[in-house]
Each structure stands twice: as structure tokens, then as C-alpha cells.
Prior knowledge:
Strand order of the largest sheet: 4-12-11-10-7-5-6
Strand content: 15-25%
Radius of gyration: 27 Å
Number of strands: 17
Number of helices: 19
Helix content: 25-40%
Amino acid sequence: MPDPRRATPRTDHVLADARLQAAATRLGPVLVKHAVTGALERCRAGELDPAAVADAAVAALPPSATTLRRVVNATGVVIHTNLGRAPLSGAAVEAVRTAAGATDVELDLATGQRGRRGRGALEALAAAVPDAGGVHVVNNGAAALALVTRMLARGDDGRDTVVIARGELVEIGDGFRIPELMESVGARLREVGTTNRVHLADYASAVDDSTAFVLKVHPSNFAVTGFTSSVPARELAGLEHAGRRVPLVVDIGSGLLEQHPRLPDEPDAGRALRDGADLVTASGDKLLGGPQAGLLLGEAALVERLRRDPFARALRVDKLTLAALEATLVGPVPPVRAALGRSVDDLRARARAIIGAWPADLVATLGAEVVDSAGAVGGGGAPGVELASAAVSLPDHLAAPLRGGEPPVLGRTVRGRLLLDLLAVDPVEDDAIADAVRRAAGAGRA
């Protein structure tokens, strides 16, 4: 009997297929060769007919040159950290495409001389927060706080201590802790108050000649309720020691630049500055709805010192971030703010339309129905705040096939039912959800 492996085509013959050559231009030769190698191995194992090798290689090609996959966020969490936090607006995506090539990021085209890096994004940020005398952008929120701490509490003038309330010693994602971050750049921390209560007198008795600044951190990913008290920024801004006003830094975390009617208790940058903060730090990829970035806003001379600090170079943002940030600030409403503005009535109507796209027997089999839901801001913003929403309720056994489909659809399981919450879903993705459920249910029945 002839050995079927002898009929296995040569690698170069398979790579000569016009479809694979086109894919090599789009994806690169490495990914295409990997797909071909896998198909040839299946052929040698007798699992694949030699004539089908090229077809199998084409079918195994990835959709793009990145392993990241677009997903539909039907979890009800608007800013989902595991899903990349804030999705960018169409305008921001287009800005990234523009910035991907050669750009005038540090060039003044009028004079031909070197220009201020990212001046358009910085001007847009300054216009969005008129209470800020100066603005600067680094690569994330933690970097912003680290830069401030390193500059103000480096100890050159004998001041290396940061006063902070015990209840604001926050741990952020993946086990990173604010106090450890600050100590890593040379600061000493002086904790005041207790876990649940702190008073102005606690701060006043803690500041001394070694105090570099007072830090107020918004506990954006948890809430302490009950017998509690904290000191607002406007009171901390008046602290003095030996005739010297003690600088106040406020880390609002979530990146809200101005008050939002649906989040009345969430601190915003403008209000913190009006209350007397010398510097405000925040994230760009949370409630602002932009790319990952750390925002620094405040007193002009302080911001300029931060910008000129040698450490700032290590935290510099790239041109793609600057482009996306500028488009977020001046462009149309970004997806995060659009999600916060959706009404329950509209969400229910969309859920009904999704179910209405399925045959009656499928609806009956799945027990599909529209249910009211409670979404969340997520991403370390507005802890404990429930956002009224609506969802499509399905059997929970569909969670895995939906997660493994194309595009993956992610919901959440509540009491044995899979809820596809529409709060964070762009309406243009509703058809994709309907099709994905149809395919997942069909695969399950097969």
C-alpha cells in the first residue's frame, strides 16, 4: 500500500497559492507559514487530503496580525478592565490611523522647527478643564501619581513625607498598591485617621517640616459605609505649617473631568481644582472614555516642573495615545458617555428586537425573555452605583459557546441564567448578538 505521506505537497507549493500570498502581504509571512505548517502536519498524519491542504491553511489563518480579538461587551460593566477599559470612539480610532504614519507630533509645519510634543492633545485637555493652569499627559494614572510623588517628595529640600488617610491606602488592579507605588519612588508615608474615619485635625497634627504634600485619594474601586467620615479637598487646601501652605494633590482616579448627572458623588477634576487642589491626577481610559493615559492638571508652574523632570521622559506617551486623546476630547460622544446616557426604555426595546429576530421555536426552546438589569460603571469608578439597564435572558449553558464564537459575546450569569446586558453594547452590535446566539444555540442542539 502506498504511503499517503508521499503525496503531501511541498511547503513552497502550498505557499504559492494566490490566497496565501495575499495573506502574507496582509498578515506577514510568519503567520501564513504557521498555518501552512499545521495543515501539512495534518496531511502527513492522514487527517487531511493532500488536495485540501491549501484550503485548510487558508481556513486556519488568523483574522489579523494580533492575538487580541474584538469582543462584544454584554456584561453590563461599562468600563471593563479585563476587556480593555474604555472603548474608543470612531473619531479616536480614525485619529490613531492618521497617527500611525509619519506625523507632525513634534514639528511646527509653519516654521519647520521643533514643536511642542502633542500640542493639539494638550490644548484640548486644557480647554476641557479651564480651571487647570497647566496640563501634562503621561502613560497611565499610576505613572501620573508616581511622577508627582518623585518630584515633590524627593527630599532635596528636606521634605519627603506624604500625609494620607488610612482609609485611602488603595489597592488597584493586579495587586498594585498606592502606598507601595509612592514608596518605590522615594516617598515616606504618614498615615492619619482610622480605616473608616479621619478628621481635619488628624491632618493638621501630622504635617511638619518634612511634609512634601497632602494626598487625597478617591477610593474609586470600593465604598466604606456606616460610621464614616472624610475630609473634603476644600478643607485640606487650607492646611499650613510654620507659615507655609502645604501642597494638596488629589487623585480622582476615574478621569471624570466635569460632573456627570448620573454620577453625582463621583469627584471630577474641575471641582477638585476649584476646591483648592494644587495638582489633580486621573486616568484617561475610564470615565473620560479615551486611551490609557495619566492626566496631570493643576498649577502651571508645578505642571511645568513635572514636564521638565527627567523621570517624565520614561513616562512619555506615544503619538497614537496623543491622537486618540485629542479626538476623545474634541470629537463626538465616546462610547463610555454614550452608555451612561442610555435609557432603560431604549435598552428594553433593543432587547425585544434581538429576541424578535429569532424563530418562535428558538425563543421557546431558550426561554428567551427581556429582563430588567443593573449595570455598573466598572474600571475603578463609582463603586456601589447601580445603572438601570435591560438584558436578554438565556440559558447559562450558552455562555461558553458565545464566548468562543466570532465575535465572542460576553455576558454574565445570574441565578442560572445568562444575561446579555445591553448597557455597554453599541446598537450597531445588536445584530451580531442575535446571530451569535442563533449559532451558539444551533451548535448546542447539534
